[in-house]
Write a structure and sequence with these properties.
By secondary structure, the chain is of the alpha+beta class. The chain has a single domain, classed as Outer membrane efflux proteins (OEP) (Up-down Bundle), CATH 1.20.1600.10. Helix content is about 65%, strand content about 15%. Strands 2-3-5-6 form a 4-stranded antiparallel β-sheet, with no helix packed on it. Strands 1-4 form a two-stranded parallel ribbon. A hairpin with a 6-residue loop joins strand 5 and strand 6. Helix 1 packs antiparallel against helix 4 and helix 8 runs antiparallel to helix 9. The two termini are about 55 Å apart. GO terms for molecular function: efflux transmembrane transporter activity; porin activity. InterPro entries: OMP_efflux, TolC-like. It is found in: Cell outer membrane. This is Agglutination protein.
Length: about 425
């Protein structure tokens, strides 16, 4: 009976292998590539960056002149009367008056206290801020992909562990039935074996549910059809050579959140420059070419035409604005101070997160070694217990305990690897060093 169960288990195992071969094997690199191409948040951040890049233009900074075309047509119908100096008078009902003026005009601000140059520099800094935001979005999404992917690897490993325990539970049930048949065991032993087997099947079903739901979540992050089927790699790969000082140095240069705070300070400084420009005069030049036509039914001139250039300049200087200039400068300086404080706060927070995450990373590496040893011991203990159970020298309770210890050891070992991988991902995310 035992041999039949083993044969059935092997057939099922090879069937699963063939089914897995028919599925798409998704690697972490492929998952990241799909996310970079499809993820909606990345696309939105990329579009926002395109907007920032488009805004970097000298015309947007106010450095170019404005050229306008205009047409003004005025018409009126009036009852008019005029008294002349000679004492006579003119009178006309429904007198028509028409005036048509059209042309082009140019206006150019040639000096505004260097505000336009500060504005252009600010637009360039906002573009850098958009680049930092896109980088942050990409790193965050790549981190999410990696975390979810390796969570699937862990779930797949736990499925394998539960498959193993069901094979063992089937063997135990077969042995119990054989012993009951020959009168060496009671019916209670068979029933207990059946209950434990059913318990293991329930755990396997729950694990399969979690595995499938996690696959749906990963497909969602990849922004593709959530029904897309695939399998992941069987093993976790860990980078065990991370160094805290190197990570801290990278974070100071590459962390997108810290980079954003530094850019925000620069933007605030350029905003102050623009406000200070209000203390200088604003000078603009203008020119126009206009054509005018006027018609009047009553008066000394019944029709006139004109065309030609006009030109001039305008200069203005703010002498008093209710002390608004001083207030605005004071507020801008406070905003710069806040930006400096935000940089310091981000530095402290970043270093704190790096230190705690690195300690967690080291602890998880040690746990991997311990849990690997525990799994080997639990496997050896299960093999010995199974041999003793076959010859009837131990109770079913002792056998079940050894079986559960082995399964739990495999699960803990898998979880220790996964937690270490999460620590690695978190550290690289903080350092802005995730490979994408």
């Amino acid at each position: 009976m035992t041999s039949k169960i083993i044969i059935k288990s092997l057939v099922l195992f090879f069937f699963c292998i063939l089914k897995m071969d028919a599925q798409e094997i998704l690697t972490p690199e492929e998952a990241i590539k799909i996310a970079l191409e499809n993820n909606f948040e990345i696309k939105i951040a990329a579009n926002n960056l395109t907007i920032d890049q488009t805004n970097v233009a000298i015309g947007n900074a106010g450095m170019l002149p404005s050229l306008t075309a205009s047409v003004v047509d005025n018409n009126s119908i009036q009852n008019s009367s005029q008294t002349l100096q000679s004492g006579g008078s003119n009178q006309l009902d429904n007198a028509k008056n028409n005036s048509l003026t059209y042309g082009v005009g140019l206006n150019w601000t040639i000096f505004d206290g260097f505000m336009m140059f500060a504005k252009l520099d600010q637009l360039k800094e906002l573009q850098k801020l958009g680049e930092a935001q896109l980088k942050l979005t990409i790193i965050t999404k790549v981190s999410d992909v990696n975390s979810t992917y390796f969570y699937l690897v862990q779930q797949q490993q736990q499925l394998a562990a539960l498959d193993t325990t069901i094979v063992i539970s089937n063997q135990r049930l077969a042995l119990a039935q054989n012993r009951f048949t020959i009168g060496k065991a009671s019916k209670l032993e068979v029933l207990n074996a059946q209950v434990d087997l059913n318990t293991d099947k329930v755990a396997l079903l729950r694990q399969k549910e979690l595995y499938q739901n996690t696959k749906i979540l990963l497909n969602q992050i990849l922004a593709r059809d959530t029904k897309t089927d695939f399998i992941v790699l069987e093993e976790l790969t860990l980078d065990e050579q991370l160094n805290l000082s190197e990570l801290s140095a990278l974070a100071a240069k590459q962390n997108p959140q810290l980079e954003s705070q530094i850019i925000n300070k620069r933007v605030a400084e350029l905003q102050l420059k623009q406000i200070k420009a209000g203390r200088y005069p604003v000078i603009s030049v203008n020119t126009a070419y206009n054509i005018g036509e006027t018609q009047s039914s009553l008066g000394f001139v019944t029709q006139s035409n004109s065309k030609g250039f006009s030109y001039g300049f305008r200069a203005s200087l703010n002498l008093f604005d209710g002390l608004a200039q001083n207030r605005n400068e004071k507020i801008a300086k406070i905003q710069i101070e806040n930006s400096t404080l935000a940089i310091e706060q981000q530095n402290i927070s970043l270093n704190s997160l790096l230190a705690t995450s690195y300690q967690t990373y080291l602890t998880n590496l040690q746990l991997i070694e311990l849990e690997e040893t525990n799994e080997a011991i639990a496997k050896q203990n299960l093999d010995i217990t199974l041999d003793k159970f076959r010859i009837g020298t131990i109770t079913t309770l002792e056998f079940r305990t050894a079986q559960l210890n082995y399964v739990n050891a495999k699960v803990r070992y898998s979880d220790a690897q996964f937690q270490a991988k999460l620590s690695e991902i978190a550290l690289k995310e903080l350092a802005g060093n995730i490979n994408f």
